[in-house]
Specification:
Helix 4 packs antiparallel against helix 5. The chain has 16 helices and 12 strands. 46% of the residues lie in helices and 16% in strands. The protein has 3 domains: 119 residues, Probable tRNA modification gtpase trme, domain 1 (Gyrase A, domain 2), CATH 3.30.1360.120; 125 residues, tRNA modification GTPase MnmE domain 2 (Four Helix Bundle (Hemerythrin (Met), subunit A)), CATH 1.20.120.430; 169 residues, Rossmann fold, CATH 3.40.50.300. Strand 11, helix 12 and strand 12 form a beta-alpha-beta unit. By secondary structure, the protein is α/β, with parallel strands linked by helices.
Protein backbone atom coordinates (compact mmCIF):
# COMPACT_ATOMS: atom_id res chain seq x y z
CA UNK A 1 0.00 0.00 0.00
CA UNK A 2 1.47 3.35 -1.09
CA UNK A 3 1.23 6.30 1.26
CA UNK A 4 2.56 9.67 0.14
CA UNK A 5 5.07 11.45 2.34
CA UNK A 6 3.97 14.93 3.38
CA UNK A 7 7.64 15.93 3.57
CA UNK A 8 8.08 15.27 -0.15
CA UNK A 9 7.90 18.07 -2.67
CA UNK A 10 6.37 16.86 -5.92
CA UNK A 11 6.56 18.28 -9.44
CA UNK A 12 4.71 17.54 -12.68
CA UNK A 13 3.37 19.06 -15.87
CA UNK A 14 -0.28 20.00 -15.35
CA UNK A 15 -1.18 20.89 -18.94
CA UNK A 16 -1.32 18.54 -21.95
CA UNK A 17 2.00 17.39 -23.34
CA UNK A 18 2.93 18.74 -26.78
CA UNK A 19 3.72 22.00 -28.50
CA UNK A 20 1.56 25.02 -27.80
CA UNK A 21 1.52 28.52 -26.33
CA UNK A 22 1.72 27.95 -22.56
CA UNK A 23 2.57 25.02 -20.31
CA UNK A 24 2.12 24.94 -16.52
CA UNK A 25 4.47 22.99 -14.27
CA UNK A 26 3.31 22.56 -10.68
CA UNK A 27 5.29 21.98 -7.50
CA UNK A 28 3.66 21.18 -4.17
CA UNK A 29 5.26 20.54 -0.81
CA UNK A 30 7.42 22.19 1.86
CA UNK A 31 10.40 22.88 -0.44
CA UNK A 32 8.42 24.35 -3.35
CA UNK A 33 9.31 27.97 -2.65
CA UNK A 34 12.97 27.22 -1.88
CA UNK A 35 13.36 25.26 -5.13
CA UNK A 36 11.68 28.06 -7.09
CA UNK A 37 13.96 30.69 -5.59
CA UNK A 38 17.02 28.62 -6.46
CA UNK A 39 15.98 28.57 -10.12
CA UNK A 40 14.27 31.96 -10.51
CA UNK A 41 16.01 35.31 -10.98
CA UNK A 42 13.63 36.99 -8.46
CA UNK A 43 13.35 36.11 -4.78
CA UNK A 44 9.69 35.25 -4.12
CA UNK A 45 8.49 35.69 -0.53
CA UNK A 46 5.22 35.26 1.35
CA UNK A 47 4.42 38.88 0.47
CA UNK A 48 4.26 37.80 -3.18
CA UNK A 49 1.56 35.21 -2.51
CA UNK A 50 -0.87 34.87 -5.43
CA UNK A 51 0.95 37.48 -7.51
CA UNK A 52 1.99 36.69 -11.09
CA UNK A 53 5.73 37.47 -11.39
CA UNK A 54 7.60 37.48 -14.70
CA UNK A 55 11.24 36.47 -14.80
CA UNK A 56 13.73 33.87 -16.01
CA UNK A 57 14.49 30.33 -14.88
CA UNK A 58 18.04 29.02 -14.86
CA UNK A 59 19.54 25.56 -14.37
CA UNK A 60 20.71 24.95 -10.77
CA UNK A 61 24.48 24.50 -11.30
CA UNK A 62 25.70 26.14 -14.49
CA UNK A 63 22.96 28.82 -14.54
CA UNK A 64 22.02 28.28 -18.16
CA UNK A 65 18.78 29.98 -19.21
CA UNK A 66 15.81 27.62 -19.30
CA UNK A 67 13.02 30.02 -20.30
CA UNK A 68 11.24 33.26 -19.58
CA UNK A 69 8.35 32.33 -17.29
CA UNK A 70 5.51 33.60 -15.11
CA UNK A 71 5.36 32.15 -11.60
CA UNK A 72 2.65 32.23 -8.93
CA UNK A 73 3.21 31.15 -5.33
CA UNK A 74 0.32 29.86 -3.23
CA UNK A 75 1.08 29.71 0.47
CA UNK A 76 -0.24 26.84 2.62
CA UNK A 77 -3.02 26.25 3.45
CA UNK A 78 -4.54 28.58 0.83
CA UNK A 79 -3.70 26.44 -2.17
CA UNK A 80 -5.26 23.64 -4.18
CA UNK A 81 -3.32 20.98 -2.26
CA UNK A 82 -3.34 22.76 1.11
CA UNK A 83 0.48 22.88 0.94
CA UNK A 84 2.92 25.45 -0.38
CA UNK A 85 2.35 25.31 -4.12
CA UNK A 86 4.09 26.94 -7.09
CA UNK A 87 2.85 27.18 -10.66
CA UNK A 88 5.39 27.94 -13.39
CA UNK A 89 3.96 29.04 -16.75
CA UNK A 90 6.49 28.58 -19.55
CA UNK A 91 6.46 28.31 -23.33
CA UNK A 92 4.91 24.99 -24.25
CA UNK A 93 7.90 23.24 -25.76
CA UNK A 94 8.62 19.71 -24.50
CA UNK A 95 12.35 20.51 -24.28
CA UNK A 96 11.65 23.46 -21.94
CA UNK A 97 9.19 21.47 -19.84
CA UNK A 98 11.64 18.61 -19.39
CA UNK A 99 14.40 21.01 -18.28
CA UNK A 100 12.14 22.71 -15.70
CA UNK A 101 11.07 19.37 -14.20
CA UNK A 102 14.64 18.02 -14.28
CA UNK A 103 15.91 21.16 -12.51
CA UNK A 104 13.28 20.81 -9.76
CA UNK A 105 14.12 17.12 -9.29
CA UNK A 106 17.83 17.96 -9.12
CA UNK A 107 17.02 20.25 -6.18
CA UNK A 108 15.11 17.60 -4.25
CA UNK A 109 11.62 17.36 -5.73
CA UNK A 110 10.30 14.10 -7.09
CA UNK A 111 7.98 13.41 -10.00
CA UNK A 112 4.35 13.31 -8.85
CA UNK A 113 2.34 10.13 -9.15
CA UNK A 114 -0.96 10.16 -11.08
CA UNK A 115 -3.54 12.16 -9.14
CA UNK A 116 -1.15 13.02 -6.31
CA UNK A 117 -1.93 16.74 -6.29
CA UNK A 118 -5.64 16.00 -5.88
CA UNK A 119 -4.90 13.22 -3.39
CA UNK A 120 -3.03 15.73 -1.23
CA UNK A 121 -5.95 18.14 -1.55
CA UNK A 122 -8.24 15.39 -0.23
CA UNK A 123 -5.95 14.35 2.61
CA UNK A 124 -5.49 17.99 3.61
CA UNK A 125 -9.30 18.40 3.72
CA UNK A 126 -9.48 20.82 0.80
CA UNK A 127 -11.87 18.44 -0.97
CA UNK A 128 -13.86 15.42 0.10
CA UNK A 129 -13.49 12.23 -1.93
CA UNK A 130 -16.57 12.75 -4.10
CA UNK A 131 -15.28 16.22 -5.04
CA UNK A 132 -11.81 14.81 -5.73
CA UNK A 133 -13.32 12.21 -8.09
CA UNK A 134 -15.26 14.99 -9.79
CA UNK A 135 -11.95 16.61 -10.77
CA UNK A 136 -11.21 13.69 -13.11
CA UNK A 137 -14.82 13.62 -14.31
CA UNK A 138 -14.71 17.32 -15.22
CA UNK A 139 -11.62 16.68 -17.34
CA UNK A 140 -13.23 13.67 -19.05
CA UNK A 141 -16.73 15.14 -19.58
CA UNK A 142 -17.85 14.55 -23.17
CA UNK A 143 -20.85 16.88 -23.33
CA UNK A 144 -21.99 20.16 -21.79
CA UNK A 145 -24.72 18.34 -19.86
CA UNK A 146 -22.18 15.93 -18.36
CA UNK A 147 -19.87 18.83 -17.53
CA UNK A 148 -22.68 20.70 -15.75
CA UNK A 149 -23.40 17.77 -13.43
CA UNK A 150 -19.75 17.02 -12.67
CA UNK A 151 -19.13 20.70 -11.87
CA UNK A 152 -22.02 20.55 -9.38
CA UNK A 153 -20.35 17.55 -7.77
CA UNK A 154 -17.01 19.37 -7.71
CA UNK A 155 -18.70 22.31 -5.98
CA UNK A 156 -20.00 19.93 -3.29
CA UNK A 157 -23.57 19.37 -4.48
CA UNK A 158 -23.53 15.62 -3.86
CA UNK A 159 -21.68 16.08 -0.57
CA UNK A 160 -24.33 18.52 0.63
CA UNK A 161 -27.18 16.15 -0.30
CA UNK A 162 -25.44 13.28 1.48
CA UNK A 163 -24.85 15.52 4.49
CA UNK A 164 -28.59 16.19 4.74
CA UNK A 165 -29.35 12.45 4.51
CA UNK A 166 -26.72 11.59 7.11
CA UNK A 167 -27.95 14.28 9.48
CA UNK A 168 -31.42 12.76 9.52
CA UNK A 169 -29.93 9.30 10.02
CA UNK A 170 -27.82 10.58 12.91
CA UNK A 171 -30.96 11.90 14.59
CA UNK A 172 -32.57 8.47 14.25
CA UNK A 173 -29.40 6.79 15.54
CA UNK A 174 -29.22 9.09 18.56
CA UNK A 175 -32.76 8.18 19.59
CA UNK A 176 -32.00 4.46 19.29
CA UNK A 177 -28.76 4.74 21.27
CA UNK A 178 -30.33 6.92 23.98
CA UNK A 179 -33.01 4.27 24.28
CA UNK A 180 -30.25 1.72 25.00
CA UNK A 181 -29.13 3.77 28.01
CA UNK A 182 -32.65 3.90 29.44
CA UNK A 183 -33.66 0.37 28.53
CA UNK A 184 -33.83 -0.88 32.11
CA UNK A 185 -36.12 1.95 33.15
CA UNK A 186 -38.52 1.05 30.32
CA UNK A 187 -38.78 4.71 29.35
CA UNK A 188 -40.24 5.29 25.89
CA UNK A 189 -37.69 7.48 24.13
CA UNK A 190 -39.22 7.26 20.66
CA UNK A 191 -42.37 6.17 18.89
CA UNK A 192 -41.60 3.43 16.31
CA UNK A 193 -44.19 4.87 13.91
CA UNK A 194 -42.44 8.23 13.98
CA UNK A 195 -39.05 6.67 13.32
CA UNK A 196 -40.53 4.66 10.48
CA UNK A 197 -41.69 7.89 8.83
CA UNK A 198 -38.20 9.39 9.23
CA UNK A 199 -36.64 6.23 7.83
CA UNK A 200 -38.97 6.19 4.83
CA UNK A 201 -38.00 9.79 4.10
CA UNK A 202 -34.31 8.85 4.16
CA UNK A 203 -34.94 5.79 1.98
CA UNK A 204 -36.79 7.98 -0.51
CA UNK A 205 -33.84 10.40 -0.69
CA UNK A 206 -31.37 7.54 -1.21
CA UNK A 207 -33.62 5.94 -3.84
CA UNK A 208 -33.69 9.25 -5.71
CA UNK A 209 -29.90 9.30 -5.90
CA UNK A 210 -29.69 5.64 -6.91
CA UNK A 211 -32.38 6.22 -9.54
CA UNK A 212 -30.36 9.05 -11.08
CA UNK A 213 -27.43 6.74 -11.85
CA UNK A 214 -28.90 5.37 -15.08
CA UNK A 215 -29.01 8.91 -16.45
CA UNK A 216 -25.64 9.77 -14.90
CA UNK A 217 -24.08 6.69 -16.53
CA UNK A 218 -25.45 7.81 -19.88
CA UNK A 219 -23.97 11.28 -19.42
CA UNK A 220 -20.61 9.88 -18.35
CA UNK A 221 -20.22 6.87 -20.64
CA UNK A 222 -22.72 7.51 -23.44
CA UNK A 223 -24.14 4.83 -25.72
CA UNK A 224 -23.11 2.86 -28.76
CA UNK A 225 -25.57 3.27 -31.64
CA UNK A 226 -25.24 0.74 -34.47
CA UNK A 227 -26.52 1.39 -38.01
CA UNK A 228 -27.51 -1.77 -39.91
CA UNK A 229 -29.06 -2.30 -43.32
CA UNK A 230 -28.47 -3.85 -46.73
CA UNK A 231 -26.06 -2.17 -49.17
CA UNK A 232 -27.03 1.19 -50.68
CA UNK A 233 -29.89 1.76 -48.23
CA UNK A 234 -28.37 5.03 -46.94
CA UNK A 235 -26.37 3.99 -43.86
CA UNK A 236 -23.34 6.12 -44.70
CA UNK A 237 -25.57 9.06 -45.63
CA UNK A 238 -27.26 8.77 -42.23
CA UNK A 239 -23.88 8.63 -40.47
CA UNK A 240 -22.76 11.80 -42.26
CA UNK A 241 -26.08 13.49 -41.47
CA UNK A 242 -25.78 12.66 -37.77
CA UNK A 243 -22.16 13.78 -37.60
CA UNK A 244 -22.82 16.87 -39.77
CA UNK A 245 -19.74 16.08 -41.84
CA UNK A 246 -18.55 13.71 -44.56
CA UNK A 247 -17.20 10.90 -42.40
CA UNK A 248 -18.16 8.03 -44.72
CA UNK A 249 -17.95 7.70 -48.50
CA UNK A 250 -21.40 7.83 -50.08
CA UNK A 251 -21.80 6.01 -53.39
CA UNK A 252 -24.57 4.42 -55.43
CA UNK A 253 -22.33 1.37 -55.82
CA UNK A 254 -23.52 -1.32 -53.35
CA UNK A 255 -20.85 -2.58 -50.95
CA UNK A 256 -18.85 0.67 -50.79
CA UNK A 257 -18.49 0.33 -47.01
CA UNK A 258 -16.47 -2.85 -46.40
CA UNK A 259 -15.77 -2.34 -42.67
CA UNK A 260 -17.41 -0.44 -39.85
CA UNK A 261 -16.82 3.31 -39.45
CA UNK A 262 -17.18 5.13 -36.12
CA UNK A 263 -18.01 8.71 -35.21
CA UNK A 264 -18.91 10.70 -32.08
CA UNK A 265 -21.88 13.00 -31.53
CA UNK A 266 -24.28 13.97 -28.78
CA UNK A 267 -28.05 13.85 -28.56
CA UNK A 268 -29.44 16.27 -25.97
CA UNK A 269 -26.30 16.05 -23.85
CA UNK A 270 -25.85 12.28 -24.17
CA UNK A 271 -22.57 11.14 -25.80
CA UNK A 272 -23.21 8.78 -28.70
CA UNK A 273 -20.71 6.57 -30.48
CA UNK A 274 -22.35 5.88 -33.81
CA UNK A 275 -21.13 2.97 -35.95
CA UNK A 276 -21.81 2.59 -39.67
CA UNK A 277 -21.41 -0.99 -40.87
CA UNK A 278 -20.99 -2.92 -44.09
CA UNK A 279 -24.23 -3.74 -45.89
CA UNK A 280 -25.99 -6.90 -44.72
CA UNK A 281 -26.40 -9.19 -47.74
CA UNK A 282 -25.46 -12.54 -49.22
CA UNK A 283 -22.28 -12.11 -51.26
CA UNK A 284 -19.60 -14.23 -52.89
CA UNK A 285 -17.02 -11.47 -52.37
CA UNK A 286 -14.80 -12.75 -49.56
CA UNK A 287 -13.75 -9.27 -48.41
CA UNK A 288 -17.33 -8.01 -48.36
CA UNK A 289 -18.48 -11.12 -46.49
CA UNK A 290 -15.88 -10.40 -43.78
CA UNK A 291 -17.34 -6.88 -43.54
CA UNK A 292 -20.86 -8.32 -43.15
CA UNK A 293 -19.65 -10.66 -40.41
CA UNK A 294 -17.96 -7.78 -38.58
CA UNK A 295 -21.18 -5.79 -38.79
CA UNK A 296 -23.13 -8.60 -37.15
CA UNK A 297 -20.42 -8.99 -34.49
CA UNK A 298 -21.04 -5.37 -33.45
CA UNK A 299 -24.60 -6.12 -32.35
CA UNK A 300 -23.88 -7.63 -28.86
CA UNK A 301 -21.93 -4.52 -27.82
CA UNK A 302 -24.52 -2.04 -29.13
CA UNK A 303 -26.87 -0.17 -26.79
CA UNK A 304 -29.30 0.58 -29.61
CA UNK A 305 -29.68 -0.57 -33.22
CA UNK A 306 -30.94 1.57 -36.10
CA UNK A 307 -32.11 -0.76 -38.87
CA UNK A 308 -32.49 1.00 -42.23
CA UNK A 309 -34.85 0.00 -45.02
CA UNK A 310 -35.52 1.58 -48.42
CA UNK A 311 -38.89 3.33 -48.26
CA UNK A 312 -39.53 3.34 -52.04
CA UNK A 313 -38.50 -0.28 -52.74
CA UNK A 314 -40.05 -3.64 -51.83
CA UNK A 315 -38.41 -5.67 -49.08
CA UNK A 316 -36.10 -8.31 -50.58
CA UNK A 317 -34.05 -11.28 -49.38
CA UNK A 318 -31.31 -9.09 -47.91
CA UNK A 319 -33.90 -7.10 -45.95
CA UNK A 320 -35.38 -10.34 -44.70
CA UNK A 321 -31.96 -11.55 -43.54
CA UNK A 322 -31.64 -8.38 -41.48
CA UNK A 323 -35.18 -8.78 -40.11
CA UNK A 324 -34.38 -12.36 -39.07
CA UNK A 325 -31.28 -11.10 -37.25
CA UNK A 326 -33.29 -8.38 -35.52
CA UNK A 327 -35.93 -10.89 -34.43
CA UNK A 328 -33.21 -12.80 -32.56
CA UNK A 329 -32.26 -9.56 -30.77
CA UNK A 330 -35.75 -8.68 -29.52
CA UNK A 331 -35.70 -8.08 -25.79
CA UNK A 332 -31.91 -8.00 -25.66
CA UNK A 333 -31.40 -4.43 -26.92
CA UNK A 334 -33.60 -1.62 -28.26
CA UNK A 335 -34.23 -1.50 -32.01
CA UNK A 336 -35.51 1.40 -34.10
CA UNK A 337 -36.62 0.78 -37.69
CA UNK A 338 -35.79 3.60 -40.10
CA UNK A 339 -37.71 3.94 -43.35
CA UNK A 340 -35.14 5.86 -45.36
CA UNK A 341 -35.34 7.71 -48.71
CA UNK A 342 -38.85 9.02 -48.11
CA UNK A 343 -37.96 11.89 -50.47
CA UNK A 344 -38.42 9.30 -53.27
CA UNK A 345 -41.79 8.15 -51.94
CA UNK A 346 -43.04 5.37 -49.64
CA UNK A 347 -44.26 1.97 -50.82
CA UNK A 348 -47.38 1.08 -48.80
CA UNK A 349 -46.49 -2.64 -48.65
CA UNK A 350 -43.01 -1.90 -47.28
CA UNK A 351 -44.38 0.48 -44.65
CA UNK A 352 -47.16 -1.98 -43.77
CA UNK A 353 -44.73 -4.87 -43.30
CA UNK A 354 -42.37 -2.86 -41.06
CA UNK A 355 -45.25 -1.41 -39.04
CA UNK A 356 -46.52 -4.92 -38.33
CA UNK A 357 -43.28 -5.73 -36.50
CA UNK A 358 -44.42 -3.49 -33.60
CA UNK A 359 -41.05 -1.76 -33.25
CA UNK A 360 -40.49 2.01 -33.27
CA UNK A 361 -40.58 3.16 -36.90
CA UNK A 362 -39.27 6.52 -38.12
CA UNK A 363 -39.67 7.72 -41.75
CA UNK A 364 -36.53 9.62 -42.78
CA UNK A 365 -34.61 11.16 -45.63
CA UNK A 366 -30.90 10.93 -44.90
CA UNK A 367 -30.36 12.91 -48.09
CA UNK A 368 -32.44 15.98 -47.15
CA UNK A 369 -32.43 15.62 -43.36
CA UNK A 370 -36.23 15.39 -43.21
CA UNK A 371 -37.39 13.95 -39.86
CA UNK A 372 -33.88 13.86 -38.37
CA UNK A 373 -35.27 15.53 -35.26
CA UNK A 374 -37.89 12.81 -34.92
CA UNK A 375 -35.22 10.14 -35.19
CA UNK A 376 -33.11 11.76 -32.46
CA UNK A 377 -36.15 12.03 -30.20
CA UNK A 378 -36.97 8.35 -30.78
CA UNK A 379 -33.41 7.42 -29.83
CA UNK A 380 -33.52 9.64 -26.76
CA UNK A 381 -36.91 8.29 -25.67
CA UNK A 382 -35.59 4.72 -25.82
CA UNK A 383 -32.28 5.29 -24.03
CA UNK A 384 -33.83 7.62 -21.49
CA UNK A 385 -37.32 6.38 -20.78
CA UNK A 386 -37.61 8.40 -17.52
CA UNK A 387 -36.87 11.89 -18.84
CA UNK A 388 -37.93 13.46 -15.53
CA UNK A 389 -34.51 12.65 -14.11
CA UNK A 390 -33.00 15.18 -16.54
CA UNK A 391 -34.24 17.94 -14.26
CA UNK A 392 -32.53 16.52 -11.17
CA UNK A 393 -29.97 18.93 -9.79
CA UNK A 394 -27.79 16.16 -8.32
CA UNK A 395 -27.06 13.15 -10.53
CA UNK A 396 -24.91 10.19 -9.49
CA UNK A 397 -22.41 9.44 -12.29
CA UNK A 398 -19.94 7.25 -10.41
CA UNK A 399 -20.54 3.49 -10.08
CA UNK A 400 -18.65 3.39 -6.77
CA UNK A 401 -21.09 5.93 -5.35
CA UNK A 402 -24.06 3.90 -6.59
CA UNK A 403 -22.78 0.72 -4.94
CA UNK A 404 -22.21 2.55 -1.65
CA UNK A 405 -25.73 4.01 -1.81
CA UNK A 406 -27.22 0.56 -2.49
CA UNK A 407 -25.31 -0.92 0.46
CA UNK A 408 -26.48 1.94 2.69
CA UNK A 409 -30.04 1.40 1.51
CA UNK A 410 -29.81 -2.32 2.27
CA UNK A 411 -28.67 -1.67 5.84
CA UNK A 412 -31.31 1.00 6.31
CA UNK A 413 -34.00 -1.33 5.00
CA UNK A 414 -32.87 -3.99 7.51
CA UNK A 415 -33.14 -1.36 10.24
CA UNK A 416 -36.66 -0.48 9.10
CA UNK A 417 -37.76 -4.11 9.03
CA UNK A 418 -36.20 -4.72 12.46
CA UNK A 419 -37.87 -1.62 13.89
CA UNK A 420 -41.25 -2.76 12.58
CA UNK A 421 -40.71 -6.19 14.16
CA UNK A 422 -39.55 -4.76 17.48
CA UNK A 423 -35.97 -6.09 17.35
CA UNK A 424 -33.45 -5.20 20.06
CA UNK A 425 -32.01 -1.67 19.84
CA UNK A 426 -28.46 -3.07 19.74
CA UNK A 427 -29.21 -4.74 16.40
CA UNK A 428 -31.03 -1.65 15.11
CA UNK A 429 -28.16 0.65 16.06
CA UNK A 430 -25.65 -1.62 14.30
CA UNK A 431 -27.60 -1.45 11.04
CA UNK A 432 -27.82 2.35 11.26
CA UNK A 433 -24.09 2.68 11.86
CA UNK A 434 -23.44 0.36 8.94
CA UNK A 435 -25.59 2.54 6.68
CA UNK A 436 -23.74 5.67 7.83
CA UNK A 437 -20.38 3.97 7.13
CA UNK A 438 -21.44 3.13 3.59
CA UNK A 439 -22.44 6.74 2.95
CA UNK A 440 -19.11 7.81 4.44
CA UNK A 441 -17.33 5.77 1.77
CA UNK A 442 -18.59 8.21 -0.85
CA UNK A 443 -17.07 11.28 0.76
CA UNK A 444 -13.98 9.46 2.03
CA UNK A 445 -14.76 9.39 5.75
CA UNK A 446 -14.69 5.58 5.92
CA UNK A 447 -12.75 4.66 2.77
CA UNK A 448 -9.72 2.34 2.95
CA UNK A 449 -6.26 3.38 1.78
CA UNK A 450 -6.32 0.72 -0.95
CA UNK A 451 -9.48 2.21 -2.44
CA UNK A 452 -8.00 5.70 -2.24
CA UNK A 453 -4.87 4.60 -4.06
CA UNK A 454 -6.94 2.92 -6.77
CA UNK A 455 -9.07 6.04 -7.26
CA UNK A 456 -6.17 8.46 -7.61
CA UNK A 457 -4.15 6.13 -9.82
CA UNK A 458 -6.89 6.61 -12.43
CA UNK A 459 -6.02 10.34 -12.64
CA UNK A 460 -3.58 11.83 -15.10
CA UNK A 461 -0.14 12.89 -13.84
CA UNK A 462 -0.12 16.56 -12.80
CA UNK A 463 -3.69 16.64 -11.45
Amino acid sequence: MKIWDSEDTIVALSTPLGKGAIAIVRMSGPESLAILNHLFDHQVTSRDERRAITGHLYTPKDRHLIDQVVVIYYRAPRSYTGEDLVEISSHCNPLIIDRIIAAAIELGARLARPGEFTQRAFLNHKLDLSQAEAVASVIEAKTQQSLTHTLRQLEGGLSKRLGEIKQEMIQITSLIEVSLDFNEEEAEIYHPSELLRHTDRVLEAIDSLIGSFAYGKLLHEGIKLLILGKPNVGKSSLLNLLLKRERAIVSEIPGTTRDYIEGQLEIDGIPVQVVDTAGIRQTSDRIEEIGVQRALEQIPSADLVLALFDAHAPLDGDDQRLLDTLEQQRGQRPIVLVLNKIDLGIRPDTERKLTSLELPLVPLSAKTGQNLGELKQAVKHIILSDTAVENEEIVVTNRRHKIALENARRSLQKFREGLARGLDEVVLAAELRSALDYLGEITGETTTADILNHIFEEFCIGK
